[in-house]
Amino acid sequence: MTIKFKRNPFLLFLPFLLYYVYYILKHKWPVLYGDEPRYIGFAENLLHGFYSPPAPGINLWNGPGYPIALMPCAALHLPVIFYPLFNALFYYLSIVFLYKALTCVAHERIALFFAIIWAFYFNIYTYLPAVLTEIFSAFLISAFVYSVVLFYKGGKIKHLILSGFLLGFLALTKIIFGYVLLGGLLVCLVLLIFGKAKRNYQSSLYIILIAFITTTPYLVYTYSLTGRFFYWGNSGGMSLYWMSTPDNLEYGDWKLPGLTNLMSPQPFNTTEGDSLLKANHSAEIASILKHQGVEQDDLFKKAAIRNIRSAPKKFIKNYFYNLSRMLFDFPYSYSYQIPQTITNIITGSLVFWAGIMALIVSVINWRSINYALKFVMLIFVLYFFISGLVSAYARQFDVMIPVVLFWIAYMADKLPKVNLRFITEPVRE
After folding, report:
1. How far apart are CA 171 and CA 225, in angstroms?
2. For the whole model, what pTM was predicted?
3. Residue 5 CB: number of other CB atoms within 10 A?
4. SS3 160
């Protein structure tokens, strides 16, 4: 019985599912907050046969991936608490799939150790009680990693199709992955032409093409609404606008259209932040907000491009501020320092330096590395650096922690054992 329990990850990690349910019940707000009503609203729209209102009030603020996952709750008219309870299941399954992926490339003890690290990754606990995309995205990422490992291990078509579907559904959930798919497609085509391991590159290309096929119905739908090819959503313009801000005291983090500083973590807020935001942006924002939907998105993009051309060095600084926020949750515009920042910096630093060590080992042993890991890391690297081009936060990095842990665990498994004890020398008389 004990051996069966250890070999079955669904049983092994079951206590975490129970704990996550408890955590959600304890911390869920009694009302919907922030972006939560929008996701539930989109799920209800899908049940009624449409996604966005027609022009001019087109609303494609996010993709339909997460709302599709919420449709059962919306169809059954379940109380609000049931929506985040699905997060407990998604997080639990992400641990199971990460563990199963790790057991394919590393020893069982290492697989268990890194799966437990993910299970106790407290930074993402913030999103457990929330009806937001982070936990669901982490589940899709873990499942994607596992399916890619299975495909490159066994070569079965069903795992190839599943890998492409999961990657495509991830793009529908976080539309930034739509551009990751495009970047991955270009990289795989170049490698297919000039690289040596053409069979591997061809398989990667198939996975990406299947992902594009998965997203095609949504892209056809956005084309029918907007008349634009490869149009993923109308939230990118505002995000790019804030990321491109030329003002020295602003670091590229997103702000509310009402020009308040409430989007920063609330304990960070300074009293003068709102007045400075209004002084820097009120005229331009007011002008843009007179328009709706796609037209508004276009105007934000034009303003962002103008900002980038007028202050390219500041844009580069904001880009690195974005990468810093993803890793360390710092800095924020017009914000105080709080003790929580220390925790974020420590967590981010541990991941960062472990990643640097794994990178060094990867470069030295590049030809010997499992190709499944190479492909997964290609997706991660593209996602990380493309995310820096718009307002970025720690939650955008947190969802990719399963990939980072998979990479570090693989490298740790291949390293020789390190003995920290001195060799005992014979006593000299």
Report:
1. 19
2. 0.93
3. 11
4. helix
